[in-house]
Design brief:
single chain; about 350 residues; alpha/beta; six-stranded parallel sheet; 12 helices; 14 strands; disordered N terminus
């Protein structure tokens, strides 16, 4: 209602009634203004940047990101395999590693941001890497997992997994000790939180069928690792078998056992030149070789086949690279390949 002055008389004028549609529109506009006033600019939706898509033309670029620690001979062989595959197949391979799960996840995130054409990842700590791996898959980047995390590979969206089955490998090691007449086994874990190493020891327990204990050491502190192994066999003289899960730890175990005159004998996972020499001398009974050169080489080849021909290898099952037990009967043949960095 409004007022106006006409011929000196103040008169009231009543607005004409609006249509129902007009009233609804006005109400909606008022409501919108109210909401805008209450919520303010912060409530406005933000545009989400599209996920980076891999480059599908030109040379294939693959990032290999593992949990290996600096100077670890095992991962050097994986790297050699990946880089050789790159040379053979015309693929650009970039290798990076970090033993810290959080740092490894950041390496994966960086590779995704760079629109990498393919991703190869070891998953010693699958849960810590899950968001990063799934983000890569959402971005259209094909992923192949290696070495560790077989059980989570398909669930996270990877094309396949390349490595040895840790439980089966552990069973073979335990059975070997059993066949040699050993009665008490110490299984040495060198990376806390590494699911694959726990599976190895569990498998060894199943294959051994006897008394199995575990010992936690830190591979990044070799002196302390040797001290802990020495203390374990010295405290319990009934331990007659020690299974290490890494070739470098095996050398420390041999030294620890000799220093206290223990009768325990060592078997190990993985090969290096020191383990080859120790098998020849009898200081190490055997090595469970997972042929990690294949874990570097095969995924690069699989990603090349996937991009160029839409091939997926494995039929939904992991591609196994081991175990292969190396002892005195085979060490001379295998040893020559260890020397050149391919076993």
């Amino acid at each position: 209602m409004s007022h106006r002055l006409r011929r000196g008389v103040l008169r009231r004028t009543v607005p004409k009634p609006r249509s129902r549609a007009a009233r609804v529109v006005a109400g909606l506009l008022a409501t919108g203004l109210l909401l805008s006033a209450c919520t303010g600019p912060a409530a406005e939706p933000k545009a989400t940047a599209p996920a980076a898509a891999p480059v599908e033309s030109g040379p294939l670029k693959v990032a290999v990101i593992t949990h290996g620690t600096a100077g670890d001979a095992f991962w050097n062989v994986v790297k050699n395999g990946a880089e050789q595959a790159g040379k053979d197949l015309g693929v650009q391979v970039e290798y990076a590693s970090d033993g810290d799960p959080g740092a490894q996840a950041k390496l994966i995130d960086n590779a995704v941001a760079q629109q990498i054409g393919g991703l190869v990842v070891s998953m010693a700590n699958p849960e810590a890497l899950q968001p990063s791996i799934e983000a890569a898959v959402r971005a259209g980047i094909p992923v192949i997992t290696i070495n560790s995390g077989e059980d989570k590979s398909a669930a996270y969206g990877a094309l396949t997994h390349v490595g040895q089955n840790e439980s089966i490998a552990g069973q073979e090691a335990g059975k070997k000790f059993k066949d040699l007449g050993k009665r008490k086994l110490l299984c040495v874990i060198h990376e806390a939180g590494n699911i694959g190493q726990a599976q190895r020891c569990d498998g060894a327990k199943a294959g051994f069928g006897g008394d199995v204990q575990t010992l936690q050491v830190d591979i990044s502190n070799p002196t302390d690792a040797e001290s802990r192994i020495r203390g374990a066999v010295q405290t319990d003289p009934s331990i007659d078998a020690v299974l290490t899960l890494n070739s470098q730890v095996a050398a420390r175990a041999v030294s620890a056992i000799k220093s206290v005159g223990s009768k325990a004998q060592v078997g190990t996972f993985d090969l290096n030149s020191d383990v080859v020499a120790a098998i020849k001398s009898g200081d190490v009974l055997f090595a469970v070789d997972q042929q990690q050169y294949e874990q570097g080489y095969l995924p690069v080849m699989f990603l090349k086949l996937y991009r160029d021909n839409a091939n997926i290898v494995g039929g939904g099952k992991p591609v196994l690279t081991g175990p292969d037990l190396v002892d005195k009967s085979t060490v001379d043949k295998v040893g020559q390949y260890v020397q050149r960095g391919t076993r």
